[in-house]
Amino acid sequence: MNKIYIILIYLMILSGCSKDEVKVVKIKETQQDLEMISAYKEAYLALNQGDPYFSAKKFLEAELLYPQSDWAPKAALLASYSYYLQNYYPEALLNLERYLITYPSDINHSYAHYLIAMCYFETIEDEKRDSAPLIKARDKFKYVVENFPNTDFAMDSKFKIDLIQDIIAAKEMYLGRHYIKKQKWIAAINRFKIVVEDYDTTVFVEEALHRLVEINYKLGLKEESQKYANLLGYNYLSSDWYKKSYKVFNKSYKISEKKINNKDKRGIIEKFKKLFN
């Protein structure tokens, strides 16, 4: 704050102002500072008391009262966080983008980018819905990992990326199964190939390989079918999906199914409950 006062005094001297005029400017500046701090404290209190709507309003007020202060970018970020808590994701995103433009040298950019990613992440629904939030969230989480690798935000971003990969793979599987029902074989093959090639670390890769075995065999492309069967067997030999693929080539093969009686089920449930005791 002293540096600001010194600059203001220096500018006033250059413009030929009197000492009295300089004192008036300093008093106004101090009053503006106090108003900003008061609004900031009020906003923070409201946030802690569970009133994020009022909190967002007061943080933005604090920023506007003294936009050149060190507290202004903090107020802008906390306003965005308050919007986020209310599920006002469009408002949070708009304010975060404004913050990045208005305060390009602020030290909290890692948090801003992470919060942008979280806003997109929170709007993700299931594999049947629009994939735009999935892609935007994944790309922003990747940005955090690549540009802020030593932060806690990067650690959580890696975890979120894995979750998103699973959801995207689930979406491709859903579409692939849909095309099978419609007997659109090429469209189905393309979806399952995406899972095998781009999402091979997800839980859906085994089923995707089996579907490729199944469809290619049905189309008479036995060499192609055998290729995917070999790949499935090499990587997931004990998988149930491999057994199903094996049955495609060996019709007489019977898949054994182990039945769990009610007593076994109770034992499993009890073991599960103990994990949380």
Summarize the structure.
By secondary structure, the protein is mostly helical.
Textual characterization of the structure:
The relative contact order is 0.05. The chain contains 13 helices and no strands. It is an all-alpha fold and 277 residues long. The chain has three domains: 1-103, Alpha Horseshoe (Serine Threonine Protein Phosphatase 5, Tetratricopeptide repeat); 108-182; 204-277, no CATH class.
Kindly provide the radius of gyration, computed on alpha-carbon positions and rounded to a whole number of angstroms: 29 Å
* Average of the residue pLDDT scores: 79
Largest sheet: none
Cα(first) to Cα(last) distance is 55 Å
Low-confidence stretches: 1-29, 257-277
Question: CATH class of the largest domain, anyone?
Answer: Mainly Alpha
The helix fraction, in percent, is over 70%
Helix and strand topology:
Elements: H1 2-14, H2 19-48, H3 52-65, H4 71-85, H5 89-102, H6 109-122, H7 132-147, H8 152-181, H9 185-198, H10 205-218, H11 222-235, H12 240-249, H13 262-274
Helix pairs in contact: 1-2, 2-3, 3-4, 4-5, 5-6, 6-7, 6-8, 7-8, 8-9, 9-10, 10-11, 10-12
